[in-house]
Write a structure and sequence with these properties.
Layout (H helix, E strand, L loop, with lengths): L1 E5 L5 H7 L2 H5 L4 H12 L3 E6 L5 E7 L3 E9 L2 E6 L8 H13 L4 E2 H7 L1 H7 L2 H11 L2 H10 L3 H20 L1 H4 L2 H13 L12 H17 L4 E2 L4 E2 L4 H12 L3 H17 L12 H4 L5 H11 L5 H11 L5 H11 L4 H13 L3 H14 L7 H13 L5 H10 L3 H10 L5 H10 L1 H10 L3 H10 L5 H10 L5 H16 L6
Parallel strand pairs: 2-6
Antiparallel strand pairs: 1-5, 2-3, 3-4, 4-5, 7-8
Helix pairs in contact: 1-4, 3-4, 9-11, 16-17, 17-18, 18-19, 19-20, 19-21, 20-21, 21-23, 22-24, 23-25, 24-25, 25-26
Length: 496
Protein backbone atom coordinates (compact mmCIF):
# COMPACT_ATOMS: atom_id res chain seq x y z
CA UNK A 1 0.00 0.00 0.00
CA UNK A 2 1.10 3.58 -0.69
CA UNK A 3 0.84 6.12 2.12
CA UNK A 4 -1.07 9.08 0.67
CA UNK A 5 -2.11 11.24 3.63
CA UNK A 6 -1.77 11.70 7.37
CA UNK A 7 -4.71 12.70 9.54
CA UNK A 8 -5.93 13.01 13.10
CA UNK A 9 -9.40 11.77 12.16
CA UNK A 10 -10.50 8.41 13.55
CA UNK A 11 -12.63 7.35 10.58
CA UNK A 12 -12.37 7.82 6.82
CA UNK A 13 -15.81 9.34 6.41
CA UNK A 14 -14.86 12.37 8.51
CA UNK A 15 -11.47 12.53 6.82
CA UNK A 16 -12.97 12.63 3.33
CA UNK A 17 -15.44 15.34 4.34
CA UNK A 18 -12.49 17.74 4.79
CA UNK A 19 -10.20 16.43 2.02
CA UNK A 20 -9.67 18.99 -0.77
CA UNK A 21 -9.07 18.09 -4.41
CA UNK A 22 -5.75 19.93 -4.50
CA UNK A 23 -4.53 17.67 -1.68
CA UNK A 24 -5.40 14.66 -3.82
CA UNK A 25 -3.58 16.19 -6.77
CA UNK A 26 -0.43 16.57 -4.67
CA UNK A 27 -0.14 12.82 -3.98
CA UNK A 28 0.67 11.75 -7.56
CA UNK A 29 2.08 13.01 -10.90
CA UNK A 30 -0.26 15.38 -12.72
CA UNK A 31 -0.86 12.99 -15.62
CA UNK A 32 -2.04 10.30 -13.20
CA UNK A 33 -4.30 12.77 -11.43
CA UNK A 34 -5.97 13.94 -14.65
CA UNK A 35 -6.60 10.37 -15.78
CA UNK A 36 -8.15 9.59 -12.43
CA UNK A 37 -10.21 12.76 -12.63
CA UNK A 38 -11.54 11.61 -16.01
CA UNK A 39 -12.49 8.24 -14.53
CA UNK A 40 -14.35 9.95 -11.69
CA UNK A 41 -16.13 12.47 -13.92
CA UNK A 42 -17.14 9.69 -16.34
CA UNK A 43 -18.81 7.78 -13.46
CA UNK A 44 -16.35 4.89 -13.69
CA UNK A 45 -16.28 4.44 -9.90
CA UNK A 46 -19.00 1.80 -9.90
CA UNK A 47 -19.27 1.31 -6.14
CA UNK A 48 -17.73 2.31 -2.82
CA UNK A 49 -18.40 1.01 0.67
CA UNK A 50 -16.98 1.58 4.17
CA UNK A 51 -16.38 -1.21 6.63
CA UNK A 52 -18.18 -1.09 9.98
CA UNK A 53 -15.84 1.30 11.81
CA UNK A 54 -15.11 3.29 8.64
CA UNK A 55 -11.37 2.63 8.71
CA UNK A 56 -11.49 0.85 5.33
CA UNK A 57 -13.02 2.01 2.07
CA UNK A 58 -13.40 -0.46 -0.79
CA UNK A 59 -14.03 1.03 -4.21
CA UNK A 60 -14.58 -0.60 -7.60
CA UNK A 61 -13.40 1.22 -10.72
CA UNK A 62 -14.44 0.12 -14.20
CA UNK A 63 -11.94 0.69 -17.00
CA UNK A 64 -11.06 -1.96 -19.53
CA UNK A 65 -11.42 -4.27 -16.52
CA UNK A 66 -12.74 -3.94 -12.98
CA UNK A 67 -10.17 -2.96 -10.36
CA UNK A 68 -10.57 -2.94 -6.60
CA UNK A 69 -9.15 0.01 -4.67
CA UNK A 70 -8.61 -0.20 -0.91
CA UNK A 71 -8.18 2.93 1.22
CA UNK A 72 -7.13 2.10 4.78
CA UNK A 73 -6.80 4.36 7.83
CA UNK A 74 -4.26 3.11 10.36
CA UNK A 75 -2.03 4.85 12.90
CA UNK A 76 -2.96 8.36 11.70
CA UNK A 77 -1.99 7.49 8.10
CA UNK A 78 -4.20 6.91 5.07
CA UNK A 79 -2.90 4.13 2.80
CA UNK A 80 -4.19 3.11 -0.63
CA UNK A 81 -3.71 0.17 -2.97
CA UNK A 82 -5.18 -1.08 -6.24
CA UNK A 83 -5.33 -4.43 -8.00
CA UNK A 84 -4.11 -2.90 -11.28
CA UNK A 85 -0.48 -3.42 -12.42
CA UNK A 86 0.62 0.15 -11.61
CA UNK A 87 3.11 0.13 -8.76
CA UNK A 88 2.20 3.41 -7.01
CA UNK A 89 -0.75 5.80 -6.67
CA UNK A 90 -2.68 5.04 -9.87
CA UNK A 91 -5.58 6.66 -11.70
CA UNK A 92 -8.02 4.20 -10.11
CA UNK A 93 -6.95 5.27 -6.61
CA UNK A 94 -7.30 8.92 -7.63
CA UNK A 95 -10.79 8.27 -8.99
CA UNK A 96 -11.89 6.65 -5.72
CA UNK A 97 -10.31 9.43 -3.63
CA UNK A 98 -12.16 12.06 -5.68
CA UNK A 99 -15.39 10.09 -5.39
CA UNK A 100 -15.02 9.77 -1.62
CA UNK A 101 -14.03 13.43 -1.22
CA UNK A 102 -17.02 14.71 -3.17
CA UNK A 103 -19.64 12.10 -2.30
CA UNK A 104 -18.73 10.68 1.12
CA UNK A 105 -22.26 11.30 2.43
CA UNK A 106 -23.58 8.86 -0.18
CA UNK A 107 -21.20 6.00 0.64
CA UNK A 108 -22.78 3.07 2.49
CA UNK A 109 -21.24 0.99 5.24
CA UNK A 110 -20.69 -2.73 4.69
CA UNK A 111 -23.56 -3.62 6.96
CA UNK A 112 -26.15 -1.58 5.06
CA UNK A 113 -24.86 -2.83 1.73
CA UNK A 114 -25.02 -6.43 2.92
CA UNK A 115 -28.64 -5.96 3.92
CA UNK A 116 -29.52 -5.44 0.27
CA UNK A 117 -28.52 -9.04 -0.44
CA UNK A 118 -27.22 -8.52 -3.97
CA UNK A 119 -25.43 -11.87 -4.10
CA UNK A 120 -28.50 -13.68 -2.77
CA UNK A 121 -30.61 -11.93 -5.37
CA UNK A 122 -28.33 -12.98 -8.23
CA UNK A 123 -28.25 -16.56 -6.92
CA UNK A 124 -32.02 -16.59 -7.03
CA UNK A 125 -32.21 -15.69 -10.71
CA UNK A 126 -32.80 -18.25 -13.39
CA UNK A 127 -30.18 -19.08 -15.99
CA UNK A 128 -32.23 -17.17 -18.55
CA UNK A 129 -32.39 -14.04 -16.38
CA UNK A 130 -28.64 -14.12 -15.81
CA UNK A 131 -28.07 -14.56 -19.53
CA UNK A 132 -30.21 -11.49 -20.21
CA UNK A 133 -28.16 -9.47 -17.72
CA UNK A 134 -24.87 -10.55 -19.31
CA UNK A 135 -26.17 -9.76 -22.80
CA UNK A 136 -27.25 -6.31 -21.62
CA UNK A 137 -24.28 -5.23 -19.49
CA UNK A 138 -21.15 -7.18 -20.49
CA UNK A 139 -18.53 -5.15 -22.44
CA UNK A 140 -18.22 -5.65 -26.19
CA UNK A 141 -14.78 -7.24 -25.82
CA UNK A 142 -16.37 -10.05 -23.77
CA UNK A 143 -18.53 -11.06 -26.73
CA UNK A 144 -15.65 -10.64 -29.20
CA UNK A 145 -13.60 -13.10 -27.14
CA UNK A 146 -16.42 -15.66 -27.12
CA UNK A 147 -16.96 -15.38 -30.88
CA UNK A 148 -13.23 -15.53 -31.66
CA UNK A 149 -12.71 -18.56 -29.42
CA UNK A 150 -14.86 -20.55 -31.84
CA UNK A 151 -12.84 -19.49 -34.88
CA UNK A 152 -10.67 -21.89 -36.87
CA UNK A 153 -7.11 -21.19 -38.01
CA UNK A 154 -8.18 -19.61 -41.29
CA UNK A 155 -10.61 -17.19 -39.63
CA UNK A 156 -8.01 -16.31 -37.00
CA UNK A 157 -5.49 -15.39 -39.69
CA UNK A 158 -7.99 -13.14 -41.43
CA UNK A 159 -8.87 -11.35 -38.21
CA UNK A 160 -5.19 -11.01 -37.34
CA UNK A 161 -4.21 -9.58 -40.73
CA UNK A 162 -6.99 -7.03 -40.54
CA UNK A 163 -6.06 -5.95 -37.01
CA UNK A 164 -2.35 -5.86 -37.90
CA UNK A 165 -3.06 -3.52 -40.83
CA UNK A 166 -5.23 -1.38 -38.61
CA UNK A 167 -2.44 -1.06 -36.03
CA UNK A 168 0.12 -0.19 -38.69
CA UNK A 169 -2.20 2.50 -40.06
CA UNK A 170 -2.55 3.97 -36.54
CA UNK A 171 1.21 4.48 -36.29
CA UNK A 172 1.19 6.12 -39.73
CA UNK A 173 -1.54 8.57 -38.69
CA UNK A 174 0.21 11.73 -37.49
CA UNK A 175 -3.02 13.23 -36.20
CA UNK A 176 -3.52 10.26 -33.88
CA UNK A 177 0.11 10.40 -32.74
CA UNK A 178 -0.49 14.00 -31.70
CA UNK A 179 -3.45 12.98 -29.52
CA UNK A 180 -2.52 10.29 -26.97
CA UNK A 181 -6.13 9.75 -25.84
CA UNK A 182 -7.42 9.20 -29.38
CA UNK A 183 -4.37 7.07 -30.17
CA UNK A 184 -5.08 4.88 -27.13
CA UNK A 185 -8.73 4.42 -28.11
CA UNK A 186 -7.84 3.48 -31.70
CA UNK A 187 -5.05 1.09 -30.68
CA UNK A 188 -7.13 -0.70 -28.04
CA UNK A 189 -10.01 -1.02 -30.48
CA UNK A 190 -7.77 -2.98 -32.86
CA UNK A 191 -6.23 -5.06 -30.07
CA UNK A 192 -9.65 -5.99 -28.68
CA UNK A 193 -10.47 -7.60 -32.06
CA UNK A 194 -7.85 -10.26 -31.25
CA UNK A 195 -9.43 -11.29 -27.94
CA UNK A 196 -9.94 -15.05 -27.72
CA UNK A 197 -7.46 -15.85 -30.50
CA UNK A 198 -4.36 -16.21 -28.30
CA UNK A 199 -4.02 -19.97 -28.74
CA UNK A 200 -4.51 -19.82 -32.50
CA UNK A 201 -1.97 -16.99 -32.98
CA UNK A 202 0.92 -18.07 -30.74
CA UNK A 203 3.45 -17.36 -33.51
CA UNK A 204 1.95 -14.14 -34.83
CA UNK A 205 1.22 -12.17 -31.66
CA UNK A 206 4.73 -11.80 -30.26
CA UNK A 207 6.05 -9.90 -33.33
CA UNK A 208 2.96 -7.68 -33.17
CA UNK A 209 3.51 -6.94 -29.47
CA UNK A 210 7.16 -6.12 -30.10
CA UNK A 211 6.16 -3.90 -33.03
CA UNK A 212 3.74 -1.92 -30.84
CA UNK A 213 6.32 -1.40 -28.09
CA UNK A 214 9.01 -0.31 -30.55
CA UNK A 215 6.70 2.02 -32.46
CA UNK A 216 5.46 3.69 -29.28
CA UNK A 217 9.07 4.35 -28.28
CA UNK A 218 9.85 5.68 -31.76
CA UNK A 219 6.86 8.02 -31.43
CA UNK A 220 8.20 9.28 -28.09
CA UNK A 221 11.59 9.86 -29.69
CA UNK A 222 9.87 12.04 -32.28
CA UNK A 223 8.07 14.03 -29.59
CA UNK A 224 4.67 12.44 -30.23
CA UNK A 225 2.06 10.79 -27.98
CA UNK A 226 2.22 13.73 -25.59
CA UNK A 227 -0.58 16.18 -24.75
CA UNK A 228 1.13 19.45 -23.81
CA UNK A 229 -2.10 21.08 -22.73
CA UNK A 230 -3.09 18.31 -20.34
CA UNK A 231 0.49 17.35 -19.41
CA UNK A 232 -0.28 13.76 -20.35
CA UNK A 233 1.64 11.20 -22.38
CA UNK A 234 0.41 7.84 -23.58
CA UNK A 235 0.43 5.02 -21.06
CA UNK A 236 -0.83 1.56 -21.99
CA UNK A 237 -4.20 0.83 -20.37
CA UNK A 238 -4.99 -2.40 -18.53
CA UNK A 239 -6.56 -3.98 -21.61
CA UNK A 240 -3.15 -3.94 -23.30
CA UNK A 241 -1.45 -5.75 -20.42
CA UNK A 242 -4.32 -8.23 -20.17
CA UNK A 243 -3.99 -8.93 -23.88
CA UNK A 244 -0.28 -9.74 -23.47
CA UNK A 245 -0.90 -11.79 -20.31
CA UNK A 246 -3.61 -13.84 -22.07
CA UNK A 247 -1.29 -14.47 -25.00
CA UNK A 248 1.58 -15.58 -22.77
CA UNK A 249 -0.73 -17.78 -20.70
CA UNK A 250 -1.67 -19.72 -23.83
CA UNK A 251 1.98 -20.74 -24.46
CA UNK A 252 3.65 -23.79 -22.99
CA UNK A 253 6.01 -23.30 -20.05
CA UNK A 254 9.20 -23.06 -22.10
CA UNK A 255 7.63 -20.65 -24.59
CA UNK A 256 6.10 -18.35 -21.98
CA UNK A 257 9.35 -18.21 -20.00
CA UNK A 258 11.40 -17.34 -23.08
CA UNK A 259 8.80 -14.77 -24.15
CA UNK A 260 8.75 -13.05 -20.75
CA UNK A 261 12.54 -12.95 -20.63
CA UNK A 262 12.60 -11.24 -24.03
CA UNK A 263 9.94 -8.76 -22.90
CA UNK A 264 11.86 -8.11 -19.68
CA UNK A 265 14.99 -7.34 -21.70
CA UNK A 266 13.09 -4.94 -23.97
CA UNK A 267 11.65 -3.03 -21.01
CA UNK A 268 15.03 -2.82 -19.27
CA UNK A 269 16.71 -1.48 -22.38
CA UNK A 270 13.99 1.09 -23.02
CA UNK A 271 14.70 4.79 -22.53
CA UNK A 272 11.19 5.24 -21.11
CA UNK A 273 9.13 3.81 -18.25
CA UNK A 274 6.06 3.49 -20.45
CA UNK A 275 5.87 -0.29 -20.39
CA UNK A 276 7.01 -0.99 -16.83
CA UNK A 277 3.51 -2.34 -16.22
CA UNK A 278 4.67 -5.46 -18.09
CA UNK A 279 6.62 -6.41 -14.96
CA UNK A 280 3.29 -7.01 -13.26
CA UNK A 281 1.89 -9.63 -15.66
CA UNK A 282 4.11 -12.53 -14.59
CA UNK A 283 1.76 -13.73 -11.85
CA UNK A 284 -1.13 -13.81 -14.34
CA UNK A 285 0.84 -15.87 -16.84
CA UNK A 286 2.07 -18.80 -14.74
CA UNK A 287 -0.43 -21.38 -13.45
CA UNK A 288 0.02 -23.70 -10.49
CA UNK A 289 1.48 -26.48 -12.63
CA UNK A 290 4.19 -24.08 -13.84
CA UNK A 291 5.35 -22.98 -10.39
CA UNK A 292 7.59 -25.96 -9.45
CA UNK A 293 9.43 -25.61 -12.79
CA UNK A 294 9.72 -21.84 -12.33
CA UNK A 295 11.08 -22.37 -8.82
CA UNK A 296 13.87 -24.58 -10.20
CA UNK A 297 14.82 -21.89 -12.72
CA UNK A 298 14.81 -19.22 -10.04
CA UNK A 299 16.91 -21.14 -7.51
CA UNK A 300 19.44 -22.11 -10.19
CA UNK A 301 19.89 -18.64 -11.67
CA UNK A 302 18.86 -15.94 -9.16
CA UNK A 303 22.43 -14.73 -8.68
CA UNK A 304 22.96 -14.19 -12.40
CA UNK A 305 19.59 -13.01 -13.72
CA UNK A 306 18.57 -9.32 -14.02
CA UNK A 307 16.96 -7.86 -10.90
CA UNK A 308 13.42 -7.38 -12.26
CA UNK A 309 13.32 -10.90 -13.67
CA UNK A 310 14.35 -12.41 -10.33
CA UNK A 311 11.82 -10.22 -8.53
CA UNK A 312 8.99 -11.28 -10.83
CA UNK A 313 9.86 -14.96 -10.58
CA UNK A 314 10.07 -14.62 -6.80
CA UNK A 315 6.61 -13.04 -6.59
CA UNK A 316 5.20 -15.96 -8.54
CA UNK A 317 6.73 -18.77 -6.48
CA UNK A 318 7.11 -17.22 -3.01
CA UNK A 319 4.22 -19.34 -1.76
CA UNK A 320 6.10 -22.60 -2.42
CA UNK A 321 9.54 -21.48 -1.19
CA UNK A 322 10.96 -22.55 2.15
CA UNK A 323 12.13 -19.84 4.55
CA UNK A 324 15.76 -20.61 3.69
CA UNK A 325 15.00 -20.26 -0.03
CA UNK A 326 13.17 -16.98 0.58
CA UNK A 327 16.14 -15.62 2.52
CA UNK A 328 18.51 -16.50 -0.32
CA UNK A 329 16.42 -14.63 -2.88
CA UNK A 330 15.67 -11.67 -0.62
CA UNK A 331 19.38 -11.32 0.14
CA UNK A 332 19.87 -10.53 -3.56
CA UNK A 333 16.75 -8.38 -3.98
CA UNK A 334 17.27 -6.29 -0.84
CA UNK A 335 20.04 -4.18 -2.36
CA UNK A 336 17.63 -2.46 -4.74
CA UNK A 337 14.32 -2.70 -2.91
CA UNK A 338 13.51 -1.48 0.57
CA UNK A 339 10.40 -3.66 0.67
CA UNK A 340 12.45 -6.80 0.10
CA UNK A 341 14.97 -5.57 2.66
CA UNK A 342 12.31 -5.26 5.34
CA UNK A 343 10.79 -8.65 4.43
CA UNK A 344 14.18 -10.30 4.84
CA UNK A 345 14.79 -8.68 8.22
CA UNK A 346 11.27 -9.49 9.43
CA UNK A 347 11.79 -13.11 8.39
CA UNK A 348 15.05 -13.26 10.32
CA UNK A 349 13.38 -11.69 13.34
CA UNK A 350 10.62 -14.31 13.30
CA UNK A 351 13.33 -16.98 13.40
CA UNK A 352 14.92 -15.36 16.42
CA UNK A 353 17.79 -13.82 14.46
CA UNK A 354 16.99 -10.21 15.27
CA UNK A 355 20.64 -9.24 15.73
CA UNK A 356 21.46 -10.53 12.24
CA UNK A 357 18.60 -8.39 10.91
CA UNK A 358 20.00 -5.37 12.75
CA UNK A 359 23.38 -5.86 11.12
CA UNK A 360 21.81 -6.18 7.66
CA UNK A 361 19.88 -2.94 8.20
CA UNK A 362 22.98 -1.18 9.52
CA UNK A 363 24.99 -2.20 6.45
CA UNK A 364 22.18 -1.23 4.07
CA UNK A 365 21.79 2.19 5.68
CA UNK A 366 25.55 2.71 5.50
CA UNK A 367 25.75 1.81 1.82
CA UNK A 368 22.77 4.07 1.04
CA UNK A 369 23.93 6.88 3.31
CA UNK A 370 23.36 9.59 0.69
CA UNK A 371 19.93 8.40 -0.42
CA UNK A 372 16.50 9.19 0.92
CA UNK A 373 15.28 6.44 3.21
CA UNK A 374 11.70 5.26 3.67
CA UNK A 375 10.34 5.58 7.18
CA UNK A 376 9.45 1.93 7.53
CA UNK A 377 13.13 0.94 7.37
CA UNK A 378 14.02 3.10 10.34
CA UNK A 379 10.83 2.08 12.13
CA UNK A 380 11.92 -1.55 11.86
CA UNK A 381 15.52 -0.73 12.75
CA UNK A 382 14.50 1.16 15.90
CA UNK A 383 12.06 -1.55 16.98
CA UNK A 384 14.69 -4.28 16.66
CA UNK A 385 17.28 -2.21 18.52
CA UNK A 386 14.75 -1.62 21.29
CA UNK A 387 14.02 -5.35 21.62
CA UNK A 388 17.71 -6.18 21.71
CA UNK A 389 18.30 -3.46 24.36
CA UNK A 390 20.59 -1.26 22.24
CA UNK A 391 21.05 2.41 23.08
CA UNK A 392 18.69 4.29 20.75
CA UNK A 393 19.94 7.86 21.22
CA UNK A 394 22.32 8.12 18.26
CA UNK A 395 20.20 6.03 15.91
CA UNK A 396 17.16 8.15 16.78
CA UNK A 397 19.10 11.29 15.78
CA UNK A 398 20.18 9.58 12.57
CA UNK A 399 16.63 8.49 11.78
CA UNK A 400 15.06 11.95 12.22
CA UNK A 401 17.90 13.47 10.20
CA UNK A 402 17.39 11.11 7.26
CA UNK A 403 13.62 10.83 7.62
CA UNK A 404 12.55 14.27 8.85
CA UNK A 405 8.83 13.61 9.20
CA UNK A 406 6.12 14.05 11.79
CA UNK A 407 5.53 10.29 12.02
CA UNK A 408 9.23 9.60 12.59
CA UNK A 409 9.27 12.03 15.50
CA UNK A 410 6.16 10.34 16.88
CA UNK A 411 7.94 7.00 16.66
CA UNK A 412 10.93 8.37 18.54
CA UNK A 413 8.63 9.80 21.20
CA UNK A 414 7.14 6.35 21.85
CA UNK A 415 10.56 4.67 22.06
CA UNK A 416 12.36 7.39 24.03
CA UNK A 417 9.99 8.63 26.72
CA UNK A 418 11.25 11.87 28.18
CA UNK A 419 12.98 14.85 26.64
CA UNK A 420 13.27 14.63 22.85
CA UNK A 421 13.91 18.33 22.29
CA UNK A 422 17.14 17.57 20.41
CA UNK A 423 15.15 15.52 17.88
CA UNK A 424 12.57 18.30 17.59
CA UNK A 425 15.38 20.75 16.82
CA UNK A 426 16.67 18.47 14.07
CA UNK A 427 13.19 18.20 12.55
CA UNK A 428 12.76 21.98 12.65
CA UNK A 429 15.96 22.45 10.67
CA UNK A 430 15.10 19.73 8.16
CA UNK A 431 11.32 20.02 7.83
CA UNK A 432 9.67 22.67 10.03
CA UNK A 433 6.25 22.05 8.52
CA UNK A 434 6.24 18.50 9.88
CA UNK A 435 7.37 19.72 13.30
CA UNK A 436 4.35 22.01 13.23
CA UNK A 437 2.16 18.98 12.53
CA UNK A 438 3.76 17.05 15.39
CA UNK A 439 3.22 19.88 17.85
CA UNK A 440 -0.40 20.26 16.70
CA UNK A 441 -1.10 16.58 17.25
CA UNK A 442 0.49 16.83 20.69
CA UNK A 443 -1.78 19.72 21.61
CA UNK A 444 1.17 22.10 22.09
CA UNK A 445 -0.50 25.03 20.35
CA UNK A 446 1.44 27.81 22.03
CA UNK A 447 4.66 26.19 20.79
CA UNK A 448 3.08 25.97 17.33
CA UNK A 449 2.49 29.71 17.40
CA UNK A 450 6.10 30.37 18.40
CA UNK A 451 7.28 28.08 15.59
CA UNK A 452 5.29 29.77 12.79
CA UNK A 453 6.47 33.18 14.01
CA UNK A 454 10.16 32.38 14.20
CA UNK A 455 10.61 29.96 11.30
CA UNK A 456 10.29 31.51 7.85
CA UNK A 457 10.76 28.21 6.00
CA UNK A 458 7.30 26.78 6.64
CA UNK A 459 5.18 26.84 3.50
CA UNK A 460 2.78 29.76 3.38
CA UNK A 461 -0.23 27.53 2.80
CA UNK A 462 0.69 25.50 5.87
CA UNK A 463 0.92 28.60 8.05
CA UNK A 464 -2.40 29.82 6.68
CA UNK A 465 -4.02 26.48 7.57
CA UNK A 466 -2.64 26.75 11.11
CA UNK A 467 -4.14 30.18 11.69
CA UNK A 468 -7.39 29.16 10.03
CA UNK A 469 -7.76 26.12 12.31
CA UNK A 470 -6.73 28.01 15.45
CA UNK A 471 -8.17 31.48 14.89
CA UNK A 472 -10.29 31.21 18.04
CA UNK A 473 -7.25 30.21 20.11
CA UNK A 474 -5.09 33.06 18.78
CA UNK A 475 -7.54 35.65 17.40
CA UNK A 476 -5.21 38.67 17.35
CA UNK A 477 -2.35 36.75 15.73
CA UNK A 478 -4.73 35.22 13.19
CA UNK A 479 -6.24 38.60 12.22
CA UNK A 480 -2.77 40.10 11.89
CA UNK A 481 -1.65 37.25 9.64
CA UNK A 482 -4.80 37.31 7.48
CA UNK A 483 -4.48 41.06 6.96
CA UNK A 484 -0.84 40.63 6.05
CA UNK A 485 -1.77 38.03 3.43
CA UNK A 486 -4.58 40.23 2.07
CA UNK A 487 -2.20 43.18 1.70
CA UNK A 488 0.33 40.94 -0.01
CA UNK A 489 -2.25 39.73 -2.52
CA UNK A 490 -3.58 43.23 -3.12
CA UNK A 491 -0.18 44.28 -4.46
CA UNK A 492 -0.96 42.19 -7.58
CA UNK A 493 -4.54 43.32 -8.21
CA UNK A 494 -3.93 46.67 -9.91
CA UNK A 495 -6.38 49.25 -8.58
CA UNK A 496 -6.91 47.51 -5.24
Amino acid sequence: MSTVFTTDEKDLKKFFETLAEDEIQDCCPSKVYYRGQEYYENDQVSSAVFNGDKTLLTGMVVGSEKYRVLVHLKDSAVHASCTCPYDSVCKHIIAVLLYASNESVNIDTAASRADIGVKEYLNSLSKGDLTDLVMKYAPEQYFTGIINSHSDGSDAQKIFKKAERGIQEIFDDHALLDSPHEFEDALMKEISKLSGLEKLLNKELEPLIVYIIEEVENAFDEGNLYDHYGDYNFEPPEIFYSFIANYASALNFKQKTEFLERIDKMVRQSSYTTFHGLYQIFEKVYNEEDLPHLKLILMDSYKDQPYHLVENYYRCVVGILSNDERKKILSVLKDKSSSHLTKLVELLNLEGAGKEGIEILRQWLSVNAKDLVEENIYFLYLDLLKVENFDLQEVAKESITRCPTCSMLQKIATLLPGDISVHEEILEKKNPGDLLGYLERSGRLSECLDLVKRNKHIWEDRVFDFYKMNKKEFPQDAVKYFCKMIDKNLEHTGDH
